[in-house]
Amino acid sequence: MSSETGKILTTDGIPLEESLKQSEKKNKIKAFLLVAPLLLFLIITYMIPIGDMFSRSIDDKMVTNMLPKTYKAMENWDGKELPPEEVFEAFYLDYKILVKNKTAGKLQTQLNYEKNGFKSVLKKLARKQKKFEEGNYKEQIMKVHKRWRNVEYWRAIKRRAPSYTYSKYLKGIDMYSNEDGKIVQVSEDRRIHRILWIRTVEVAFFVTLFCFLMAYPIAHLLATLPMKYSNLLMICVLLPFWTSLLVRTASWMILLQQQGIVNDFFVWIGLVADDNRPEMMYNKTGTYVAMTQILLPFMVLPLYSVMKTISPSLMRAGKSLGATPAVAFFKVYFPLTIPGIGAGCLLVFILAIGYYITPALVGGASGTLISNQIAYHMKSTLDWSFASAMGLMLLTGVLVIYWIYNKLVGVDNIKLG
Amino acid sequence: MALPKYTEPHYRIWHYFYLFVCGCVFFFLIAPLFVIFPLSFNAEEFLVFTDGMKRLDPDAFSLRWYNDMIYGTKNPWGLAARNSFIIAIFATLGSIILGTLAALGLSSRHMPYKGLIMAILISPMIVPLIISGVAIFFFMAKVGLAATHLGIILAHIILGTPFVVITVTATLSGFDHSITRAASSLGSSPYNTFMKITLPLILPGVISGGLFAFVTSFDEVVVVLFLAGLDNTTIPIQMWTGLREQLSPTILAVATCLIVLSVLILLTAELLRRRSERLRGINR
């Protein structure tokens, strides 16, 4: 609007443009105020705690705080030869306080992680340091144990100087940084986490695949049947969906036990001998079967909602143009269901990858997943920083999948029921 | 799905095979639930069908496990049920209030950063439960709400709101905003408009979101496992403990009650869905 023609004014005498802007702003604030309570609530109780998990997982202040004087004295030490007298003195003073406060044990454990055999050396020092005389601590400490002359042990202390560490993440993929600061794998018999990661992805992948293979035909049937039949059959999908997860897991525990109905059936049809009933629970089979049944509705519902929108005349048109039913299906129908397949697979895969309850109950030792390991460290070993690190690694994986899915298909078409 | 007469034989076989596969999948989905039913009336302590049950001998059936569930001294099911209902009801109310408000804001076309905010609001649904459990536990422990009812309720509000946000936003997507403008042009206050016009129209969405939130809370184990103390044991926690230690038929009695409850919830949800679809149909 040019200034010569004059601005359009509202009845209050304010330029219309400004008045509109003001009301727009007011509406924006109004909308935001409606969202604000939930947003604030989630940020405080959920987003910040997840961030807190990160700081917990890299937190390594324990050793740093236990040896403040030592690390200050070590600042000028290059780590090539034995440290100078100041470092020895500072370490003696720090350690004396720890022994007095009865917290030396923690330091011993922590430094033993860094260098094997540190514990006994420190324990001996704890006993002997009471008789130390003032001055020349270097000589006195080195006299306690000959390993104090080994520069490796001092380097091990120095490695713990930073107040943060990524060692928990390395541990999560069965690696650690060795004495030289190089990242290496742990010995073969101790690589437990990598097996768990691979198994988790494998189980999630196959459960998703099984769910897809089973859900596709029934979703198609539900979408093409007349309403009065499909509503009845829909109950078969929705009832498990609304039923407690634990109830469904319990029913699988009854079915799959050695004297259970599935085994009875196998014996009856002569597939297995009565005295040789296979173990179907407390292993991977149990995890697969139970998880597939439990997650199946999450695949059926999005597929159904997409298939419902596909007009049957499209297939008829394809056939009338000379396509065989198979060709018509793969060229016309299948591509149209891809958004549903995407949504279903994403839902099932993300749910499966973080599954905890069912694997814990029917999985046994060979069917547990990464989330069981996280829960184990949360509740049993109380290594919360390691649990946080593993949790965040899992979360990163889930977010990456989510991001890829969003790029490929778009998140907007996820529907509930 | 009768086939036309001119169908070729190989296609006919294929079609029956397809129906057979569908039948198997439906059986796989629904049959496990029906195992629990008869076994919960077992007179014996075993979790297998006894010979008496196979012969339908009335003596092989009894209500002793239901009796044990209600009056058994060892089983804290009464306390667990009370806790479960209290927690689920308050968590549902909280989720409904916070979720509906947020959905109203989100469906306004003036809302800035819609995508980002929506992502934050539904994140508890995407993040694996175990991670939510760990994070919420750290928060509740820090503010001293671990092992309290309030802590668990808040945790379940976090998990329940995404469902309410999604269902109410979906309902609002078919909502004709000129109705509320008409109301305010007739002199209605915004509060009055919401209560008399908007709420009744979006109520099916609100309630079905609330049902989701209720079921989520009522069935939630992972987060409660981290948060609950002895006084806040819930039905899922009791079931979890029971299933880990020894499978007793009492659990099956509880499970049967839960299935009945889920049938009721399913019926309510279905009725609401149809109603809301009808309403949306009229609006279009």
Structure description:
The complex is a heterodimer of chains A (417) and B (284). With 417 residues, chain A is mainly α. Chain A folds into 3 domains: 1-59, no CATH class; 61-163, no CATH class; 194-413, MetI-like fold, CATH 1.10.3720. Helices cover 69% and strands 1% of the residues of chain A. In chain A, a hairpin with a 5-residue loop joins strand 1 (175-177) and strand 2 (183-185). Chain A is flat and about 100 Å long. The model of chain A has no long low-confidence stretch (mean pLDDT 86). Chain B is mainly α. Chain B folds into 2 domains: 9-65, no CATH class; 80-283, MetI-like fold. Chain B contains 12 helices and no strands. In chain B, helix 4 (77-107) runs parallel beside helix 7 (149-173). Chain B is globular and about 75 Å long.
Keywords for this structure?
heterodimer, A: 417 residues, mainly alpha, MetI-like fold, 3 domains, two-stranded antiparallel ribbon, B: 284 residues, globular
Topology, pairings included?
The complex is a heterodimer of chains A (417) and B (284).
Chain A: H1 16-58, H2 61-66, H3 68-74, H4 85-100, H5 104-114, H6 118-128, H7 137-144, H8 151-159, H9 167-172, E1 175-177, E2 183-185, H10 193-224, H11 227-242, H12 245-256, H13 261-268, H14 284-307, H15 312-320, H16 325-336, H17 338-353, H18 357-362, H19 370-381, H20 384-408
Antiparallel strand pairs in A: 1-2
Helix pairs in contact in A: 1-20, 3-4, 5-6, 10-11, 10-14, 10-17, 11-14, 12-14, 14-17, 15-16, 17-20, 19-20
Chain B: H1 9-39, H2 51-54, H3 64-71, H4 77-107, H5 114-126, H6 129-143, H7 149-173, H8 178-185, H9 190-218, H10 222-227, H11 235-245, H12 249-283
Helix pairs in contact in B: 1-12, 3-12, 4-7, 4-9, 4-11, 5-7, 7-9, 8-9, 9-12
Quick overview:
The complex is a heterodimer of chains A (417) and B (284). Chain A has helices at 16-58, 61-66, 68-74, 85-100, 104-114, 118-128, 137-144, 151-159, 167-172, 193-224, 227-242, 245-256, 261-268, 284-307, 312-320, 325-336, 338-353, 357-362, 370-381, 384-408; strands spanning 175-177, 183-185.
